[in-house]
Amino acid sequence: MPRWSVLIGLLALVTAQAAPPADCSKSMLVHSSFVIYSSKAKFPDPSEVVTLDFFHEFNPAGAVTLCGFSFKPDRKAEVLTITAPRLANFSALFREGRQDTKRLVLENTYTDMSMGGPGSKSNAVLDLNTYTLTYRPPSYSSVPFTVGVKIDGGAIQPLYYDGKASTIKVPRNARTVDIYAKVDPEIITQWDRVSIDLGKAVIRFYREASFPTR
């Protein structure tokens, strides 16, 4: 995903309860707690770049619908639920660059608060063509972390452990995929868990979650 820092000076923060209508001819950028999109131009006002930060500035009364996607935050639990018309539609949101490769690229960051500065970025990648789950670790990171996966509530499997990434084959008849991150207490992550309901086309980002023991 592009660096959010490049966009900071361009973002129009939305503090009202209603989100401006989106220009669906342009791509949206979605993260674990916010969405960035271009609003529809309405004479005499031009289109603007809008960010909806669901856990800070923007507090909607209910779910927000943009271009067929529903965004429903639980501010107390810090869980963002995103629903799509079909699972395949998510590849237009969670992607790298401008091209839709039919993969869900789920970015996470690992920030050592004692060091300051931005955290290391990595991606869990679900390929919707092959139903394989892979992991792209940071090119360099001194932060130790582990990533595990549960399929249909089964045993936890290593996706990234001891500096090594694995490939996991997801059965075509699987219903749910849950991805967990395990870090030391002083490490801050964007999410500790991502839950993907494959049949209902729902993705939930959990800011905090316990890593399964089995």
From TrEMBL:
Signal peptide: 1-18
Keyword set, alphabetical order: Signal
Domain of life where this protein originates: Bacteria
The protein's name: Lipid/polyisoprenoid-binding YceI-like domain-containing protein
Organism: Deinococcus aetherius
Lineage, broadest ranks: Bacteria, Thermotogati, Deinococcota, Deinococci, Deinococcales
